[in-house]
Design a protein that fits this description.
Distance between the termini: 48 Å
Structural class: mainly alpha
Radius of gyration: 19 Å
Oligomer: single chain
Strand content: under 5%
Number of helices: 2
Length: 84
């Protein structure tokens, strides 16, 4: 008898509940947006020198801001995964 194998991509195993799936999808979208905000084409929004923010050109402030946002998201994700 032939063994039937399921083909295609499987992102989640069958024993993961819906809450965990939704949380994983949220974090994937969060980090995707954070990454895209730092590269073309979204970076074009902030690609200018003026105004100066905290003494930095706006483009440098934009990158620094997103690095801080990624750090906060990473710490939050870590705490969710390994709390207790």
């Amino acid at each position: 008898m032939k063994k039937v194998t399921k083909r295609g991509l499987s992102f989640f195993s069958k024993d993961i509940d819906n809450t965990r799936k939704k949380r994983s999808i949220f974090w994937f979208c969060y980090f995707l947006i954070c990454g895209l905000a730092q590269i073309w084409p979204i970076y074009l929004i902030a690609n200018r020198v003026k105004p100066l923010v905290l003494g930095m050109p706006f483009s440098m402030f934009w990158i620094g801001l997103w690095i801080v946002i990624v750090f906060i998201g990473t710490m939050t994700k870590y705490n969710q995964e390994y709390r207790g």
